[in-house]
Amino acid sequence: MEAAITQLDVGAALLRSRARLRRAAALPAGVWVAHWGNADTQTAYLKPSHHTLSFYLEGGHAVRCHQAPSARGEPGSLCLLPAGHESHWDVNGSLQLLHVYLPTLQWAQAAERWFELDPRSATLAERIYFHDEGLASLCGRIAALDWRGTGEALLLQQLTLDLQARLLMSQTVHRPRLGPVRGGLSPAARRRVLEKMETHLHERLDLAELARVACLSEFHFARMFKTSFGTSPHAWVMQRRLERARRLLAQGHATLDEVVQRCGYAHLSHLNAALKRAGLPSASAVRQMASAVTFFTSSITA
């Protein structure tokens, strides 16, 4: 798991600080949960590409953040570190942490698909040490689970989905209060384009066709899509194809060739390359792992 966690900026920073990765689990859509132990060291997070929610399981009283020197941690306290932030930490004494890593693309998808929000209107706030009873309860339940247990895999995914929903509802900076969000695709165009992508993931998607669905020129559509979601149409499609492939592999009903065809990959090595970039084993290995740990994806992320 350490090799995979190094692809996450915060995870790599913790390993450089000699933190101990006690366990980790990869969930659908590139979400990760990790249980860390650390003591008497220093670490820095320098503009990570993903969001991080941190929950103190043990210790934390003597940990200091240079950017918030008066803030004090303790068991049960939380930190919310959005993508792109910078912070430097002195870790005095020992501690244990639960981290939940949320890719920015997953966050954009959740905002749009769950609450029909323009992703730019649901920017995570940066918070160094705070208390939220609901978030703390969800984190505590996640930490108490056996992440490798076949009977708890569904509950682990559901709890992380509940956690993301609570973050969207309670820990975001809603920019519309400061003025309307300008540029990007309209809500109706966003829905039409995402539906088109989802329906035709197994086919060759054409930028011109997506632009026609949005009633825009190709050049304008590409710019407006990236303005709305912070990523290109190609990156969005690649992520959704990977999510579908992981789900089909975990369910175990389709053959490897069927998974390749239903997810729009050219061949099995193409799918394996996509899995490798996401820090995951090959398709056959994912299929084998599913016999011990069954992953499910709820209708929210389907």
Give an account of the 3D structure.
The chain is α+β, with helices and mostly antiparallel strands. The chain folds into 3 domains: 2-173, Jelly Rolls, CATH 2.60.120; 183-230; 238-302, no CATH class. Helices cover 43% and strands 21% of the residues. The protein is built from 12 helices and 9 strands. The protein has helices at 2-5, 9-16, 104-115, 133-144, 153-170, 187-199, 207-214, 218-229, 233-251, 256-262, 268-277, 283-290; strands spanning 20-26, 32-46, 50-59, 64-65, 78-81, 86-103, 123-124, 127-130, 172-173. Strands 1, 2, 3, 4, 5, 6 and 8 form a 7-stranded antiparallel sheet that branches. A hairpin with a 5-residue loop joins strand 1 and strand 2 (32-46). Helix 7 (207-214) packs across helix 8 (218-229).
Helix content: 40-55%
**Residue share in β-strands:** 15-25%
Amino-to-carboxy terminus distance: 26 Å
**Major sheet characteristics:** 7 strands, antiparallel
Pick out the low-confidence regions: 175-179, 292-302
* Number of distinct helices: 12
- What is the tally of beta strands? 9
Number of domains: 3
**CATH class of the largest domain, please?**
Mainly Beta
Q: What structural class should be given to the helix and strand makeup? A: alpha+beta
CATH architecture heading of the largest domain: Sandwich
CATH topology of the largest domain: Jelly Rolls
